[in-house]
Amino acid sequence: xxxxxxxxxPTENLICGDVDGNISLQSSALTPNRRGWDGRLPVPxxxxxxxxxxxxxxxxxxNPVAGFIATAxxxxxxxxxxxxxxxKSLNAIPTERFARVHQVLSDIIFxxx
Length: 113
Known about the structure:
- By secondary structure, the chain is an alpha+beta fold.
- It is 15% helix and 13% strand.
- It is built from 1 helix and 3 strands, in the order βββα.
- Strands 1-2-3 form a 3-stranded antiparallel sheet, with no helix packed on it.
- The radius of gyration is 17 Å and the shape is elongated.
């Protein structure tokens, strides 16, 4: 999962599993870290908002309690995570696709228990 932090492409939610039954999600991209900047608007070229390396705290999970990982272009930012990985408008991110994927996977998992 650590190598995925340096994915050299637009932000992606990488999901994987292994032969031992582990599953994980890693939000990945070379995401610049800028103090005092939330990513929404351009900043003045005063030097106040220069990059301070790359973020190492992108959202990730390993073997979630639910027994599955669902993603469908929904808000992946965890509570208190700032600045968010992607904005779109935190209040307007559609959740219907994620809710449906989550419901179907939940039904499958719980019907097997």
